[in-house]
Design goal:
single chain, 10 helices, two-stranded antiparallel ribbon, disordered N terminus
Length: about 400
């Protein structure tokens, strides 16, 4: 008898059911010996450290562990009752049942948490994009200066128009040079622009045209003092600036020469302001359809409808009560024309600023931008109002 193999610990293996034959990894059969010798020698059984997961403490078909204690009372009792089967038994559960993870282990494929929709953003109020308080304050101040000069001394009002023209020319030529490198000569433009307004008030339309021609000639000559590179570009921009700012502003001076010239100018200013206000109010509240998104994304068709409606009502009132020999139906036509020309003028200014890549022409007026940002709708509207008033009630 080989004593070294007696009582050797079996190798650990899978505990299979007894009716499935020899268990793989089970302990080999013990040595043969005589009965008397067996009575004198009793092998000490090795108590397993812990029953295999899913086994039973009284089941001796499992293999004992080499590291287990020799005596049963030295074993630690598991935290669960080993006499009761666990909820999961690998011998009885189907293979597709997910296996339990050890205590404290991180699952390899955790179940995804249900998607929780993000909270809905709080509704935002529409914004005008400018300091509305500053804009109103500056507008009221400018209106007070214009009305005071208009009804006290007409010559002072002509001076206010000339100053606005010079500042507008400075803003326009500065932005052209900064953004495009175009050097339109400011000195001949400023002198010629102021002279154009004065000539229109003193000599009428003929004086305005003569001043315009002389200003264009002065721009051509002044630019000759610099190198020829970019000459055509610079003088073209200078002539455009002379026509766009001072020449169109001259029609305000032409309106002022009539007997009721102060009221004609007041009608012109009121209708333009009312048109802009109606477009802003209606467009801000109800505007959904863009008017010209590539030029001015903020303008809507609803805003244009508001401008036309407000201007036509204001035109009927102004022609009926402010203009001598005027009629309300003439005011409807005048209001419609003002709304159209003011909108086109605003879009034209926006086109220039978009080409230059700027938002405002200047920063002189808080809440408004620059002088040119306020003259954009007034300049193209002046010749329209002057012409219609001459057709309706004459030039007197």
């Amino acid at each position: 008898m080989n004593d070294s193999s007696w009582g050797a610990p079996p190798q650990a293996g899978y505990w299979g059911p007894s009716d499935q034959g020899p268990v793989q990894g089970a302990a080999p059969a013990g040595p043969t010996y005589d009965a008397p010798e067996a009575q004198q020698t009793r092998p000490m059984s090795i108590v397993p450290d812990e029953p295999a997961y899913g086994g039973h403490q009284d089941d001796d078909r499992g293999a004992a562990r080499l590291s287990g204690p020799l005596f049963r009372d030295e074993t630690q009792q598991p935290p669960y009752d080993v006499r009761q089967p666990l909820p999961y038994d690998p011998r009885t559960q189907p293979s597709d049942t997910p296996q339990a993870q050890p205590y404290g282990a991180v699952p390899q494929n955790p179940e995804p948490m249900p998607d929780v929709p993000p909270p809905a953003p709080a509704p935002q109020k529409k914004s005008a994009g400018r300091d509305l308080g500053a804009a109103i304050g500056v507008g009221v101040g400018l209106g007070a200066v214009i009305i005071a000069s208009l009804f006290v001394v007409k010559a002072v009002f002509v001076g206010v128009v000339a100053v606005a023209v010079v500042v507008g020319l400075w803003e326009l030529t500065s932005r052209l040079q900064e953004r495009k490198g175009i050097k339109a000569p400011l000195v001949p433009l400023a002198v010629g622009g102021a002279a154009m307004v004065v000539a229109g008030y003193v000599r009428g339309a003929e004086g305005a045209w003569v001043a315009m021609a002389l200003t264009a000639l002065a721009v051509l000559v002044w630019r000759m003092t610099e190198p020829p590179e970019g000459y055509l570009r610079d003088v073209t921009a200078g002539v455009f600036a002379a026509f766009y700012v001072p020449f169109l502003a001259t029609f305000v001076a032409l309106m002022l020469t009539a007997d009721d010239g102060a009221w004609r100018v007041m009608t012109f200013l009121l209708l333009t302001v009312v048109s802009d206000t109606g477009a802003y109010a209606v467009g801000w509240r109800f505007g959904t359809h863009k008017l010209a998104p590539r030029i001015s994304p903020g303008k809507t068709r609803e805003g244009l409808f508001g401008a036309v409606s407000f201007a036509m009502v204001a035109g009927a009132l102004c022609m009926q009560f402010l203009i001598d020999d005027g009629s309300w139906w003439q005011g409807l036509i005048l209001g419609f024309a003002v709304a159209a020309s003011a909108t086109l003028g605003d879009l034209g200014e926006s086109m220039i600023k978009r080409d230059l890549g700027i938002k405002d022409m200047g920063t002189l007026l808080p809440g408004h931008g620059g002088i040119m940002d306020r003259l954009d709708s007034l300049l193209p509207t002046a010749p329209v109002v002057w012409l219609l008033l001459v057709l309706f009630v004459g030039s007197g």
